[in-house]
Amino acid sequence: MGEVYAAQGVPNSANQDVWHYGTSKVHFQNGVVIRWEESRDHPLKARIDSNPTSSKTSTVFSKGSTKAEVRSIQGNPIRESDKMWDYSVSRVFFEDDRVVDWYESPLDPLKVKR
């Protein structure tokens, strides 16, 4: 979902596991794209990865990571603003849409590069 968000941006609407971009749709299952429907009026920035095992998928984020990368790795925050995302007690701080710092509670660990 984070990769779609990073490539395509905020959907016009979303319900359950379908994100709508105008008349185009992206369908998810368990947070992974399973198919898409693309209209000529609202093209998607989609492609089929012919070698998905070779793609670099990060499991942690660090200072300098984008908001889309954090969302992809950590998931959706419970609260978000331009400068801060809350993951229960833990927080991630941003400037210019990039991670600049975080506070991590042992109760709610973050997936950060150590």
Radius of gyration: 15 Å
Percent of residues in helices comes to 10-25%
Strand content: 25-35%
Compute the separation of the termini in Å.
Answer: 24 Å
Overall number of structural domains: 2
Order of helices and strands: HEEEEHEEEE
Number of distinct beta strands:
8
The strand line-up of the biggest sheet is 1-2-3-4
Q: Could you describe the 3D structure shown?
A:
The chain folds into two domains: 2-45, no CATH class; 60-103, no CATH class. The chain has a four-stranded antiparallel beta sheet with strand order 1-2-3-4, with no helix packed on it. Strands 5-6-7-8 form a four-stranded antiparallel beta sheet, with no helix packed on it. It contains two helices and eight strands, in the order H-E-E-E-E-H-E-E-E-E. Helix 1 (2-8) packs antiparallel against helix 2 (67-74). The model has no long low-confidence stretch (mean pLDDT 87). It has helices spanning 2-8, 67-74; strands at 13-15, 18-21, 24-29, 32-37, 79-80, 84-87, 90-95, 98-103. The relative contact order is 0.15.
